[in-house]
Amino acid sequence: MQEDFHYYATYCAAYLAGYSHEESLDICYCAQFVDLCSVTFLSKIKAPTKAATTQLQLEMMDARTDIIGLQDITRIWASFHFLPRDLYANKAKRSKRYMSKYRLICGPNGDLIEKTVRLASGKSLQHAGIAMHVLADTWAHMYFAGTPSLVINNIDRSFYEILEKDGEEYARLIRFRHNPSAPDDIEKGLYTNSLFQTNENSIMNLGHGRAGHFPDYSFAKYKYMPAWGDYMEVLKDNPSDYEKAFTQMVYALRYLRGDVDSFEKDTYDTSVMEKYGDRIRGIIRKRQLSASEDWKSFGEELSGEIIEDFDITKYEDEYELIPDDSKNKSFIGKFIEGALQQKGMVTDEISKAGINHAGFVIPIELDLRKSG
Length: 372
Fold this sequence. Notes:
Layout: H1 3-16, H2 21-33, H3 39-44, H4 57-61, H5 67-80, H6 96-102, H7 111-119, H8 125-140, H9 150-153, E1 160-165, E2 168-173, E3 175-177, E4 190-192, E5 221-224, E6 234-237, H10 238-257, H11 271-285, H12 292-303, H13 316-321, H14 331-352
Parallel strand pairs: 3-4
Antiparallel strand pairs: 1-2, 1-5, 5-6
């Protein structure tokens, strides 16, 4: 997903869940910050780099692809962006090596999303924001895995967008190109993706890079035939999935706020759709590269307050100037604590499933004076 959903739509979900304007801003800030909290950023403010929740393109270019480097990559991307749905999935006549990656395929309503949301219970608003990022991405990144893998993440040439004309659906072949400087062209069906590499563990084969940003667009409805699915056609309906993501966020945030006793899989707060369904569906289904302005407008109508634009530098000074023994009380300090707990939990669960792609549990370092 993109800033439009992680920041502005998450604000709307938090406010509808009962949080105040200020609390909703904190939650959505952290949901978006997950996409920007890199080693480069943490090094700049002298914070623990183990708390990184993403990797920048320049960092990825220099990333190692030996076993240690691949484990570092998987810890980040599987923990925060491609949460595995079923670490114990079965597939007949497949090797252990194959199954280890197959079991990392992302999807909603798995055991790990329950653990993710429950882990944030009773914690800071920062931890709630992290959980909402992870939850939302389970819907957008379905069928892709947070580890480099050609066999899991590659797309074939039969990648079609499902469009509608005169009330009838039809399929249009999507064309991909490797030109990072060129914007996606929705009208022509032309999108930028990562460069094809035959190396199974190439960084180009991480997540949905081979499908570019297309899976992040809420309007996208598409079908393709992945190798992991034995080249059987898979249909992905983002408008329907994003609606579920939004209503599941509202439900999860009501749980984190204490208004719901427990968080269960495949449960949604459909009451928001009864009241605002036409507006929400209109935003989700609108064909545009970014829905930020529409979600922002909706959020401001809900709260009657101005939603400030996301600013990555907003809390830098506070963290850098606060005394060392109080850094864990700062805004970024609380985010770091939540990020380390989430990464540690997911890494532990992957390891316990007998999969070594994420390494072992990372000790939760709460002394924020220590970096690296």
